[in-house]
Every structure is written in C-alpha cells, then in structure tokens.
Write a structure and sequence with these properties.
388 residues, alpha/beta, 7-stranded mixed beta sheet, two-stranded antiparallel sheet, 11 helices, 45% helix, elongated
Length: 388
C-alpha cells in the first residue's frame, strides 16, 4: 500500500469518526436515561464509571483509620439520653462537636438537653436548607432546631442537605456552602471544619467550586456507643466528635462504596476530605470528548488495515483490549492522581465508531449499486459520452 492510499484511508477514518460523533449527539441527546446509564448526571442515570473506581478502591486491603474524626452512635436515644452523652463529651475537650440531630418540636421538659448543649464546647447544630423561591440559585434555612433561641447567640449551624434532586439517588459530592440572598449558609461539614481547622476550611473555599467530590475510599472511623464513651474518653480529646444515628432508616443514602450509608457517616467522610485536602479534579467535558474522538479514530483506522477474512474477530479482540486499557488507565488516574476522566464517552464513541463504519460502508455500497444500475447518474461516464 503506497503513501497516497494510506492518506485516503486515514481521511476516510476521520470522516467515519466525525460521523460517529454526530450519530452520538443525535441519538443520545433526546434520551433522559443516558446511554448505558454512564454519561448522564447522577440524578438521571444514577451511575457513573467513577462509582466503579470508588467501589474497587474501597475494597483494597489497605485502609486508613481516621485520626481526626470520631463518631458516637446515639441509636434511638431520647433527648435526655443525648443530653447525658453531650455532658460526657464536653468533659473530653473535643476540638469540635457536630450534632446531626434536628430537634424540630419542643417536648414537655427540654431543660436537660438545652443545658447540655449550652455546656458543650465548639458545637455545631444541624439545619436544612431549601431553594429560595424569591431568588434564583439561592437558598434559605428551612428547618433548624426549635431550641436555637434558647442557646447562646452565635452558635453555628450547618446544612445537612446533600446535593441531589432526588433523595434516593447516589451521594457522590457535597456543597461546601449554600449561597443565600445575603450570606452563604455553610454545609454541616464546612461549619465543623471552620471550628476545628480554619486553614483547611479556607483552602476549600479558595477552590471556589460549587460542589466537591467526597473521598469515600478506604477510610474507617472509631465508633462508640454511649456506654463506651467513659471507657474511651481519651480517644475523644482534641477530636472532631459527630453525634448521630447509624441505624436510622430515614437517614440512609446510597454512595459509590455502600448501598446504604447513614448521613452522619457521609458527613464524616466529607470532613475527612476537607481536612486531608485530598480533592478530586474533573477533566472538562471537551477534554473527555477529545479523548473519545481520538480513541474512536484509532478503532476505525485499525479496522481499515485488517484483511476482510479476519476483520470481525480482530475488531472484537481490539475492542476488548482497548476497553481493558481504558478502564485500567482511568482507575490509575482516579486513585494515583485524583483525576476524574469520564471514559464513558470513549467507550460509547468506540461503539458508535463501529456503527458509523457500518453506515459508511453501506452508503458506499448503495452508491456503487446506484451507479451501476443507473449509468446516467455516473458523471464520469456522462462526460465520456459527451466528449465522443
């Protein structure tokens, strides 16, 4: 094969790759479920290839026991029981205490819980936010504990919301803060970090990202029941202590590493992400498409230089090799470089590349048949006849 023929084949491969890109846009744009549920947003397909990476990474034998965050599982304790826990925690000089409990309605005698909250140092109370109907892309406080007015003024609150449209969708990211009409409302994790590690909180806000990916992988926490606090009081000294229930069904959420994870555990992972400064970086959409275009071009080009009698088998083998390399390389980037590359685009473009190749080949065959069937349409023959 001479150089001119090679150039023709590469130009043809470029044309087929362009067709594949156009086909992907035309066929995928009307769909709301996303192709193979891999390139849509979490609230549509509710699966991304990075969920697979996170799940595999979390199953590694090596795990990290967090040295900053301790969780106290309050289970089904009533308010007096929670007050007793707070009294014990306050004696341990915690760096910060996050109370992931919303005391929505007053009870007959709340003096015990109020006094316990007043006496607990560096405390952050839970709250929830909702979109502000009077301002676009703004939020306002929705629910706070009724007893906030009974506590010392200025006690911080943090929004415990997770940024998904539907409550039963996978939690992958967190909002550092929710912008209000005047001031931003800090997330629960950020409000706690602002007390425990102001420099880390400032570093997070400096990134100025509306959402950040939570690093769930291979991290565990010391968890104590109320009965175990007295015997492990030393483990709470200088730590961030989170109070919440690990068994409340209403507060269970799906995450990339667990099918069911309680809200307080998600807040723990979020705080650990902020404290570690181990953030993920997302490759832009156009970079993802550029990589997909190049890989699709490689596949189409490869198909043009294979003998017809072994083409089908060779293409399937090449697809499998490319699939393995893509997933493996994506995992390495995710784990070793904290870079999220959406190779789902690439996997889809490889498929559309083969589809476009079939369309192109079919179109060529159709044109050849038409020219043979209707010679009058063959301009070269018409010019030849006219010249005679």
């Amino acid at each position: 094969m001479n150089l001119k023929e090679r150039h023709k084949k590469y130009l043809k491969a470029l044309g087929i790759t362009t067709l594949a890109f156009l086909l992907s846009q035309v066929l995928l744009s009307p769909l709301t479920f996303s192709a193979a549920t891999m390139i849509s947003s979490p609230d549509r397909g509710d699966f991304t290839i990075n969920d697979f990476y996170s799940h595999v990474a979390d199953k590694r034998a090596v795990r990290t026991l967090d040295s900053d965050v301790v969780i106290v599982d309050i289970g089904d304790l009533d308010r007096d029981g929670i007050a007793d826990v707070l009294d014990m925690i306050s004696l341990c000089s915690p760096r910060a205490v996050g109370v992931d409990v919303l005391f929505a309605e007053p009870h007959e005698d709340d003096s015990h819980i109020i006094n316990a909250l007043r006496g607990c140092p560096n405390i952050v109370m839970a709250a929830s936010v909702k979109p502000d109907s009077s301002a676009t892309d703004r939020f306002r406080l929705d629910l706070t504990s009724f007893l906030m007015d009974s506590l010392a003024p200025g006690i911080p609150v943090g929004a415990t919301n997770f940024p998904t449209v539907e409550g039963d969708h996978t939690i992958r990211e967190f909002r550092p803060a929710y912008p209000g009409r005047t001031d931003s409302i800090a997330s629960f994790a950020l409000a706690i970090t602002e007390i425990a590690a102001p420099d880390r909180a400032a570093a997070l806000m400096k990134r100025d990202n509306p959402e950040e990916v939570i690093n769930f992988c291979s991290r565990t926490y010391k968890i104590y029941t109320p009965d175990e606090i007295a015997g492990n009081a030393g483990e709470l000294i200088g730590k961030i202590v989170l109070l919440g229930s690990l068994s409340q069904r209403e507060d269970m959420h799906t995450t990339p590493v667990k099918a069911s994870m309680t809200g307080v555990m998600i807040h723990a992972h979020t705080i650990s992400t902020i404290l570690s400064g181990h953030y993920f970086y997302k490759l832009g959409k156009w970079w993802n498409w550029a990589i997909a275009f190049i890989l699709c071009f490689m596949v189409v080009s490869f198909s043009m230089f294979i003998p017809a009698n072994i083409k089908s088998m060779s293409m399937r083998v090449f697809q499998l090799i490319l699939l393995y390399v893509t997933i493996r390389y994506g995992y390495d980037l995710f784990i070793n470089y904290s870079l999220i590359v959406n190779f789902s685009y690439s996997l889809l473009m490889i498929t559309f590349g083969l589809l476009a190749n079939d369309f192109w080949t079919g179109a060529e065959a159709a044109v050849a048949w038409i020219k043979n069937k209707f010679p009058i349409l063959n301009l070269k023959k018409v010019k030849f006849l006219l010249s005679r």
